[in-house]
Amino acid sequence: MRAHDMNKPLPEPAAGMSVITLGTAAGPAIRGPHPGMATAVVVDGSFYLVDFGLGITRAANSAGLRGENLRACFITHLHSDHVAELPGYFLWNWGRPVNGITTPATVFGPGTDPQGIPGENGGTAAMVEHLLEAFSYDINIRVHDEGRPDLRELVLAADIELPAAVAGTAHGNHTPAMEPFLVYEDELVRVSAILVEHPPVFPAFGFRIESRYGSVVISGDTTECANMVALATGADLLIHEAVNLDYFAALDMAPEFLNHQRISHTTAPGVGRVAAQAGVPHVVLSHLAGLASDDEWTAGVRTGFDGRITVAAPGNRFDVAGAALAEAL
């Protein structure tokens, strides 16, 4: 695999698989210039989006990704820094005038937390429905004034259903060991999910995207956990979040905030342990919580992992050329 600088525009490959770290920043805080968490997986010119952090709309356009080539979207969890720009992305990538979507694309994501706030109407499907309703004035105007298709018929949403074996026992403070399960498939890719630990948020998912060219795993937000090892085992590329606890400990933060960082995110050494146990050849750190130099992030991972380590920057592209799937897609 090789990384490319965003400042050198690249044409979309006619064939192959690549991953673009559109945004790498963590949290609803602006500490630097980097866009929020968002990742694109490109396969044979079509692409799939994972999360919609701040800045994804411009980042995707700058990377040469056009909505007309979007196949499906996946949301790891419903924290605002992973979904806040979802409506903006589709409103700017909709219809033929902007080379946007003209055929339906589904957004797959967490359903309602069964132990959440009483009366809440959470979940991905409800969120998307409400967002489209909130922008109904703009949608209606453009349908009638510009001849665009109805965006409400193009942006679909589906709550990811948990396997029956874990649905009754899993919650924000308990993530049982499980195997990855299929959530989406087309002629180019298979996408599997697994529950990760990001308390008290639930459900929270990591995703594995496999094609005939290889496989990439995206952790979502998670503490170090066995399910991430299960999801990433044998993958060609692991994109994993990381937190610098020392950075936050040095700030005057509330105890609740510090505890969240400690129990809900993975330290750099923890990422190294997950990668080593999963046997992946290359780790890319993205969704970096707290500040550290690239050398400091890398040194932390290196304590438990001797493979390749990259600290992602927005717009990096990683070509995936791993072992082919046993059966053709």
Task: Explain what this protein looks like in three dimensions.
By secondary structure, the chain is of the alpha/beta class. The protein contains eleven helices and 15 strands. It has helices at 56-62, 80-83, 86-92, 124-134, 136-146, 164-167, 226-232, 245-249, 255-264, 268-278, 294-302, and strands spanning 3-4, 17-23, 38-43, 46-50, 70-74, 105-109, 155-159, 181-185, 190-195, 205-211, 214-218, 237-243, 282-289, 308-311, 316-320. A hairpin with a 2-residue loop joins strand 3 and strand 4 (46-50). The model is unreliable at 323-329 (pLDDT under 50). Residues 32-224 form the Metallo-beta-lactamase domain. Keywords: Endonuclease, Hydrolase, Nuclease. InterPro entries: AtsA-like_MBL-fold (IPR044094), Metallo-B-lactamas (IPR001279), RibonucZ/Hydroxyglut_hydro (IPR036866). This is MBL fold metallo-hydrolase.
Strand content: 15-25%
> How many DSSP H or I helices?
11
CA radius of gyration: 19 Å
Q: Describe the main β-sheet briefly.
A: 8 strands, mixed
Poorly predicted residue ranges = 323-329
Number of strands: 15
Strand order of the largest sheet: 1-15-2-3-4-5-6-7
Oligomer: single chain
Return the average pLDDT rounded to an integer.
Answer: 91
| Termini separation | 22 Å
Task: Look at the helices and sheets and give the structural class.
Answer: alpha/beta
H/E order of the elements?
EEEEHEHHEHHEHEEEEHEHHHEHEE
Can you tell me the overall shape? globular
Helix content: 25-40%
Describe, in short, the structure shown.
InterPro entries: AtsA-like_MBL-fold, Metallo-B-lactamas, RibonucZ/Hydroxyglut_hydro. This protein is α/β, with parallel strands linked by helices and about 325 residues long.
